[in-house]
Amino acid sequence: MNGADLTHVDTWLFDLDNTLYPLESGIAAQMDEKITDYMVRLTGLERAPARALQKQYLADHGTTLNGLLHHHRVDPAHYHAYVHDLILDGIAPTEDLRAAVERLPGRRLIFTNADDRHALRVLEHLDLADLFDEVFHIGSADYSAKPQGAAYDAIVAAHAVTPRSTAFFEDSERNLEPAALMGMTTVLVGAHAAASVAPFVDYRTPHLAPFLAAAHVKDR
After folding, report:
1. Residue 13: its H or E element
2. pLDDT band, very low/low/confident/very high, at 220 (cuts 50, 70, 90)
3. Would the pLDDT of 1 be above 90?
């Protein structure tokens, strides 16, 4: 928190959920329950085995949706409409986060496994939508998802990203490894970050806004 040296960075990639707002907001818990509901309806399984299958798909395919696409050929739009029908009262805009993001020089991109509608809804709820140049969502990568390498290759190609001058902020440790292998600077965000010993994580912070506010960045 003494100020990370990010003076080499001109492209800022941010995960969305549990990164721009904290896990403790309860949004992730809502979404998790909605996904389980969807699994129950789709498979006809009881809740416990449906939930176990949900977590197996997450582990094997990066997202539950990718498992459902592979094994059940679901309609992604139908899936997202259901699982992202969320109450966002647990998150709210803060002046600190807005100011911290706004000071970053260069491009700011969202890189999320969610769909575009959910991403824009969350960004608008946080009063951050106007600060980001693009939202690169799971549909942008033809439903390749972090941590699949194809998702990272897709965002690099779509936005002419130079990994060596890019910082990537994520709450999921495993999603940072492919970015690090490409040469990106990696920042693990969340209450669990301090416990990480992964060699591919460059910086760890429990809270995004103060980390960004203290970072050394290029002059505009």
Report:
1. strand 11-14
2. confident
3. no
Could you tell me if 167 and 9 are in contact, meaning their C-beta atoms sit under 8 angstroms apart?
Answer: yes
Find out whether 6 and 168 touch, Cβ atoms under 8 Å.
no
Q: At what angle do helices 76-83 and 27-43 cross, to 10 degrees?
A: 130
H or E element that contains 167:
strand 166-170
Q: Report whether 179 contacts 162 (CB < 8 A).
A: no
* Helical residues (DSSP H) of the chain, grouped into ranges: 27-43, 47-61, 64-72, 76-83, 95-102, 116-125, 149-159, 173-182, 208-214
Report which of 130, 126, 131 is spatially closest to residue 91, judged by C-alpha positions.
126
* pTM to 2 decimal places: 0.95
Could you identify the residue written with the tokens 């491009």? Answer: 107
Could you tell me which of 14, 2, 18 has the C-alpha nearest to residue 185?
14
Is the peptide bond prior to 147 cis by the omega test (within 30 degrees of 0)? yes
Angle at 40 between CA 34 and CA 43, to 5 degrees: 135
- Per-residue pLDDT at 148 exceeds 60: yes
Q: Could you give all domains of the chain from N- to C-terminal order, each with its CATH number?
A: 5-22+92-217 (3.40.50.1000), 27-83 (1.10.150.450)
Read off the pLDDT of each residue in 156-174 and give the average, rounded to a whole number: 98
pLDDT in tens, 67-126: 999 999 999 999 999 999 999 999 999 999 999 999 999 999 999 999 999 999 999 999
Task: Tell me the β-bridge partners of 168.
Answer: 13, 186
